[in-house]
Amino acid sequence: MIVQELVAIQDRCGYLPDEELRALARRISVPLHRIHEVASFYPLYRLNPGSSVTVRVCRDMACHLRGAARLKGVLQALANEIGPDQVCVEGVSCLGQCDSAPSAVSINDHVYWGVSEDELKKRMHAAAAKETLPHQHGNRDPLGWKIDPYDGKPRYEAVQKFMEKRDADGILKSIEVAGLRGMGGAGFPTFRKWSFVRGTPGDVKYVVCNADESEPGTFKDRELLRRTPHLVIEGMLLAGLVTGAKHGYLYIRHEYHDELEAFEDALEDARSRNVIGDNILGSGLTFKLDIFVSPGGYIQGEESALLEAMEDRRGEPRNKPPFPVTHGLYNKPTVINNVETLAWVPSIIIHGGEWYKNGGTNGATNGATNGATGMRFVSISGDVKKPGVYEVPLGQTVRDLIFNCAGGMHGGQKLKAIATSGPSGGFLPTFIPADKLPPKFAKEKLAQGAKGLDILDLPLDFNTVGAMGGMLGAAFVVYGDRAKMLEQALNCVEFYRNESCGKCVPCRVGSQKLVDIMDGMLQGQMKREALPIVSELGQTMTLASICGLGQVAANPMLTLMKYFPEEI
Fold this sequence. Notes:
By secondary structure, the chain is α/β, with parallel strands linked by helices. It folds into 5 domains: 2-39, no CATH class; 53-128, Glutaredoxin (3-Layer(aba) Sandwich); 157-356, NADH-ubiquinone oxidoreductase 51kDa subunit (Rossmann fold, 3-Layer(aba) Sandwich), CATH 3.40.50; 368-483, Ubiquitin-like (UB roll), CATH 3.10.20.600; 485-568, NADH-ubiquinone oxidoreductase 51kDa subunit, iron-sulphur binding domain (de novo design (two linked rop proteins), Up-down Bundle). The chain contains 23 helices and 15 strands. The chain has helices at residues 2-13, 18-28, 32-39, 61-65, 68-82, 117-128, 157-165, 168-178, 190-199, 220-227, 229-243, 257-272, 303-310, 339-351, 353-357, 398-405, 439-445, 462-467, 485-499, 505-522, 532-544, 548-552, 555-563; strands at residues 53-58, 87-92, 104-107, 110-113, 206-211, 247-252, 288-293, 334-338, 375-382, 388-393, 415-423, 428-429, 431-433, 452-454, 475-480. The strands form 4 sheets. It has a 5-stranded mixed β-sheet, with helices on both faces. It has a 4-stranded mixed β-sheet with strand order 2-1-3-4, covered by helices on one side. A 4-stranded parallel β-sheet has the order 7-6-5-8, sandwiched between helices. Strand 9 (375-382) and strand 10 (388-393) form a beta hairpin.
């Protein structure tokens, strides 16, 4: 594979020397331009030697809110002392350590979080002295989550249960009853995706676990990979057994060193138990599982861009249709689910679909016949006392999440805004007047005579948030009353500009135009009469962009204009 060969060269040389690229082209018999088109695309690769020490400070959402710019300035001052030619300090897109904001820093590709400034300075000095840097390790202990029926001690009972009857239809029915959806943000029903792949003819099929969680504010899959990797493995195996796929890949972001190590340990254990490989548990069935380390880039979280990377091309989204369920990896039927989705499957098989369904705030256990059902993991960060990952029922209110789970507002602040889907869904204020809500939502959800919606009372489930015109994703970022929302919106739009793959014009040009407009606002160089162009630009990007990145890139600004006009 070109992607992984380039990683090996860079690990050995520190960058990608031209002579090494020419040698690789000869060794694997591909044109040199094919090597360069991959090497020049991904942020992991370096085509020039550059500084011996590269320090990257996370600049997105939670880190930006909590003072990443100041931290970057402190580290830059030290770099100037050591020698600017020797140490380079720069910003970087989300490192997946939002709960430790703003101290999410990468030093020569070693990611550190929750580390003091003094300790970061020591590690910069150590890197400059060419000392070996340690990787930071997080806690792997189980936390008593409902998702893990084994409490951290894998027994693979769900696979054993399948082997007793080999009832693929029964498993699909359990997942359908559970109402399990894609937990990466798309919310597509899992049983439908698996059914499509199972029903598509072909002897070769694949299962891919998307662990490239790179959206600002999202870090729940990080915790699941570290604490419950066995559930991800078992979920992938069950997907393979149900759909007929015999090979699976974990596609994991390269910054997740600790999580990769935890998964490798769990995979070795699974192979020793004969649940991964040939003749699984003596059944004659086969499922092999390998790991693909991403060369970086937020766009790789888009399923077709991910497949392009795995096929040794630039990670640019494909036009759809066809969809991966029929034409996925190597043009074969492919199940692509995110970490959390797959991790829920073993418990659903063991306890039954009703068990998961009843975990929501309006499940059948408390007498309701409709409403929010199921459970999920949420990453909450920003201006809260206890940022982190929480296992919660779907349908819990914003009040419950912020004040009961996350301990309330940080530093005595009052709630000003929330982002329910990282930057993708934009911002919601503490109170939304009735006339700014969709008429149907206002009629069905607001009490008679109510003037609007108190955001603390908003139930966090896919249907309710979607009905009010919002998005419910994997990231929940909280903003206190000290936050300047135009600056926060600009930060989000800059993220999309930085991470655009550049394939389609609406996203490539539109995201930069949005940044220019918003920067002009901050500088006082834009007139109110020019604001309508923002709405027109956002609509164009939504309609014409190939993938979700361009389609949502304007949302931070559009919601700012709708709900926070005083900020503009």
